[in-house]
Amino acid sequence: MADTLEFNEIYQEVKGSMNDGRLRLSRQGVIFKNSKTGKVDNIQASELAEGVWRRVALGHGLKLLTKSGHVYKYDGFRESEFDKLSEFFRAHYRLELAEKDLCVKGWNWGTVRFGGQLLSFDIGEQPVFEIPLSNVSQCTTGKNEVTLEFHQNDDAEVSLMEVRFYVPPTQEDGVDPVEAFAQNVLSKADVIQATGDAICIFRELQCLTPRGRYDIRIYPTFLHLHGKTFDYKIPYTTVLRLFLLPHKDQRQMFFVISLDPPIKQGQTRYHFLILLFSKDEDISLTLNMNEEEVEKRFEGRLTKNMSGSLYEMVSRVMKALVNRKITVPGNFQGHSGAQCITCSYKASSGLLYPLERGFIYVHKPPVHIRFDEISFVNFARGTTTTRSFDFEIETKQGTQYTFSSIEREEYGKLFDFVNAKKLNIKNRGLKEGMKQSYDEYADSDEDQHDAYLERMKEEGKIREENANDSSDNSGEETDESFNPGEEDDDVAEEFDSNASASSSSGDGDSDRDEKKPAKKAKVVKDRKPRKKQVENKKGKDPNAPKRPMSAYMLWLNANRERIKSDHPGISITDLSKKAGELWKAMSKEKKEEWDRKAEDARRDYEKAMKEYGMGSKSESSRVEKSKKKKKKQEKQVKGKAEKKGSTSKSSSSTKSPAKNTNESFKSKEFVSSDESSSAESKKEDSEEEGVASLPPSSEDSASGSD
Fold it and tell me: Which GO biological-process labels does this protein carry (predicted)?
């Protein structure tokens, strides 16, 4: 039998974390060396009281209990090593290595057993879990309930912080099972005990978080909050920062204590302890120490007898005991003269204090943000009204805090403060207009200049003006809308049994003559001028003056080649994007130069439009006279052709009533002249206002019916 056994890659469980190392068993005892820290744990053989072999997550484990009540756990063994260990324990330690399996049923109802420094929760004879009582930091009781809180383990990524036990009531008189449970825990737990007298006591202080009135007892190593319902013991080592903040009404003061880890009550965590004091409340304080002890411990920071404002006394004592500086607001001063800004965070209203190295918001919930945590800040438009704005802070971890409903008057002061602290501002373009009204900077969170949007706005204004100018001369044409089928009018006429103007010939049948072709010709003439009116309305006169460009487009045309030369091979989309960035970065003075050019071009355009309107009216009257004269001449030619055709084809034509004699006999020359002049006659009719609604003349009906 070997005198020693060595095992590599064994894990020791300490406060919930697994530390790997090397385990050695010898005649003298058990030695474990931590691979990470080099720390050595030595258990004498004479101290061993029990050894347990059990299956765990990492294979199999060994639990050793000492006579003093300490428990040591080692995991990472293989199942085949049980026989070797069992024989070694029997030979050298005179102990039987017992095998015990954990209960894995998942039940939450069982029996609690206290053995030495260990609390074991068992179901039947099998343990479910064990808690070393030395890890318990606090034990609180309620109605049929006991809560155990544990010390935080900085080495573990995840730590168990709290366990609650429900203790059913019993019928035994004089014995409270809840108190008995708590006493068993406290007798072995590492709980902060209020031994000795307090240095000083502050009575009935108003506390905002946790809410209520508490007596604060100051002890050398911890702070004791005693209320009607809850008690809190706060070690000074958990205090991170102290803040003394004046209220906006200048009559009250906030004293804020930042804690890590926070104090807990059920599921609620309080990272900040906030006390509210009145400036008018004074106190005379006597420390429960003699003058020599006070001088030796606090080195002149405190004296045995002190008097002054209550908030000054509390902050002075805390500063001396915690040995941390008290943070007060810096040189920031808001619009109303206060050192804070009224705003809302989430659903509650509170006060935001800009400090020298961060922001703090009180009080519900309290928030402290350091400048080195901030990625950028943003001034955003208010969601409900334009008389307020939102101040957004995004941290480097991606957390966003939005402080809303800040008065518009606070914008300039807050912007100057943020700018002086050199924080990144998302909508930086506002720095030129800090004194402008909120409506002007509300839309400043746009990332890029939208050149297309600016151009569309300019063209929309010009179209609006043109529409107003032409509305006086448009008459009833503005009522024209979508007319389905007009695009196919020429095709439809070929199959229209009543249409005669475009498909007439000398061989037309008598059936068509009997269906009142004149009426149908009127319908066709009524529809076609409308088509021409719509086309003329939609068409663009090439002689009309061109619309003026916006300031941005004038600048872009003048600098397009320069941008191309600075960025060879740049695409059209990238060029537009780059131009937008350059335009956005341009100073206000340079933009004003192009604004003046755009205004000059606009005035020139308006002047040209007036001249164009006067010239177009005179030109249209002259064209109208010439077309009327031409039409009259064409009608005379048509009349002569009709007479000539009637004499040459009188024998072959079908008879018709005397009223329609001239309509029945037409020569081929007349038909060709009619077709050649049909397009011109349509165009003339479209330009004469109201022609479509008038009945056709006798000459028109004679020439257009067949």
Answer: DNA repair; DNA replication; regulation of chromatin organization
